[in-house]
């Protein structure tokens, strides 16, 4: 109903957004519904202010030490982003130059990752690493199916071999595309999938093995070369030729610059495909992933659709259709802006901060490092056994959150769920000064917790981690 020119509605508390009277205009509603369409229009200034104030309640991205995702780009990138906001990556007929730049980017990555021939490789941009992983997994599955059919064998019950510390997108892949996941458990002795005992998991129905270059839980590299050697041995004994997909969501944009001598990429013949996140250590705003296959033969042709859309005929291999093209242009901007030397400097700066932090935390008597951040700039630690029964890392995480710092605590994967760790991700823009401020707050909160004369309740503990 309308009273005195102001639209009102009888709803329960919490279902409307109240407008600050400072921003209300005569005759304009002073509150708007949260969960259904308003009856009338609002002034753009009013709608902007509401959304602006609501989003202000989000955390401070600079203090978020949980996320891998990039949260800062320079002013030129932001200008380019706004200029390209209307570009549709899938419409290659309308935006042929954006499509050309996409090709330049994945060919640059193919060269960076030592494809036998960058011109003979094939790749695509995606919304993120999750989509890229699923495309890599689908190609493995389809190649396996073709080989089985050609041999007159069953294509039922495909499986894929993974670390138990794999990112949740691989669980989704197995669920959505009906592939049995075979998890190799990590342990204190084998902190990552390293090829040990791999023959117990690989059989004639194995479509591939996933090697992670930067495990989400801890940031450690899985040794792709050792995994490949184990598969070489399996093939020699059984005849099974099993390929590797490298999930390089983070590490594929770190290793080429900080560990160029490390053999993990297409230099290893068994590596069929590699994915990475442009929006992680590719240094682009969220919404961009990449996947590259070593050659055209590694991507089955029947997975590529050729569609006529908006006046053009185009090939596409994606789970999404229309999607933003702006991030692809931003990636190309970063490749041109930084080059090899620039990426090396930026990634080295992040790793230096990670090593500085891990060294300081490793020296604290309360903690024990799981790893030190010398692979990707990510590391984890646990509470030293026997230090205290009054508090745990979940309590410390909550205390740090009160200071604005997001530092997750979570149990390790199956077989190690009795171990809880905390993890820090160092991204571009997290300086030594900010790291020093974090350490001051960390020490202050540890001192506070150590001074407790009784145990804290455990109801704030969380049962899992899926970041």
List keywords for this structure.
467 residues, alpha/beta, Aspartate Aminotransferase, domain 2, 7-stranded mixed β-sheet, 10 helices, globular
Short description:
The chain is of the alpha/beta class and 467 residues long.
Supply Rg: 25 Å
Q: What is the CATH topology assignment of the largest domain? A: Aspartate Aminotransferase, domain 2
**CATH homolog superfamily of the largest domain:** Type I PLP-dependent aspartate aminotransferase-like (Major domain)
CATH class of the largest domain: Alpha Beta
Distance between termini? Answer: 45 Å
* Secondary-structure element order, N to C: EEEEHHHEHEHEEHEHEEEEHEEHEEH
The unreliable regions are 1-11
Q: What is the domain tally?
A: 3
Mean of pLDDT = 92
Biggest sheet character = 7 strands, mixed
Strand order of the largest sheet: 5-11-10-9-8-6-7
Structural class: alpha/beta
User: In total, how many beta strands?
Assistant: 17
- Helicity range: 25-40%
Quaternary form? single chain
The helix tally amounts to: 10
Morphology: globular
CATH architecture of the largest domain: 3-Layer(aba) Sandwich
Strand content: 15-25%
GO molecular function: aromatic-L-amino-acid decarboxylase activity; glutamate decarboxylase activity; pyridoxal phosphate binding
InterPro entries: Glutamate_decarboxylase (IPR010107), PyrdxlP-dep_de-COase (IPR002129), PyrdxlP-dep_Trfase (IPR015424), PyrdxlP-dep_Trfase_major (IPR015421)
Protein name: Glutamate decarboxylase
Pfam family, one: Pyridoxal_deC
